[in-house]
Known about the structure:
Layout: E1 6-12, H1 16-27, E2 32-36, H2 43-46, H3 78-91, E3 97-98, E4 102-108, E5 111-116, E6 119-128, E7 150-151, E8 167-171, H4 175-186, E9 190-194, E10 201-203, E11 205-206, E12 209-210, H5 212-218, H6 223-237, H7 253-260, E13 265-267, H8 270-275, E14 280-282, E15 285-289, E16 292-295, E17 300-302, E18 305-306
Parallel strand pairs: 1-2, 1-6, 2-3, 7-18, 8-9, 8-18, 9-14, 10-13
Antiparallel strand pairs: 4-5, 5-6, 11-12, 15-16, 16-17
Helix pairs in contact: 6-7
Amino acid sequence: MSLPAEIDVVVVGAGPAGLAVAACLQQRGIAHALLEKADHIAPAWRTHYDRLHLHTNRALSGLPHFPMPRHLPKYPSRQQLIDYLEAYVAANRLAPQLGVAVAQIERENGRYLSQTSAGTIHSRAVVMATGYSHNPIIPRWPGDDTFPGTILHSSAYRNGAPFAGQDVLVVGFGNSGGEIALDLIEHGARPKISVRGPVNIIPRDVLGLPILAISIPLAQLPPKLADWLASPLLKLYYPSYQKLGLQKAPGGPFTQIAHQQHIPLLDIGTVREIRQGRLAVVPEVQSFAGGEVRFVDGRSQTFQAVV
């Protein structure tokens, strides 16, 4: 299918956000071109690790005009989300232009000129829905080139099977790090998780209810007030960060999101593994010396892999 020379709106990226925008434009009869440089929709979701499930519940995760089917579990898997997005395209009669990369966008005479691999499109508006996970950031440490084992970014991690029986260091206490540590444990690895600073933790469910049922209304309030109201509940679930080997962030989760644009750890079992001794917390990595990883507190340990 060739690209039009002129159109009302260009949407760049056919992940969940781009698909949702295109569906809303379609509902309103606004001509648009939905462009995706990959050869399939939702490319980021297709490359995530196998164990990944949505951290937001099904009822609150559907896109406009097409709720997630009720037969899906409370927290759909990565593949179930991909299947849902494919069905979303069909249900909303979307026509994503696949394999079309946008190289440059310019403003000229009140219009936008999008230079793509399939030609130039003029439009009155452009929606950027490219996400923020295209380019993995892999940190470097002194001596990491001497490490004989595997060092890979979470974007290249698929499952823990290759690491069974190995000591594996997971660097980072974000949601990917927390779930990858669980996956490694389930595959028979011995992970430790490196945490370099203070953190916030929130439970995925509270008394069987998704935490979003509470956090969405609270998010309408000033962050400090929302943190104050949520504090008694969070202390009930996580009374002592120190006993977990962690430091509590000075602000609460709403302040963290507002000021740092960083989502706290949504706990789906990581804290349980720490409490039961199957997942140890270690400090920030300082350097490598062959297979030995040295930490900022002076401790060191030999690992076979680092994620």
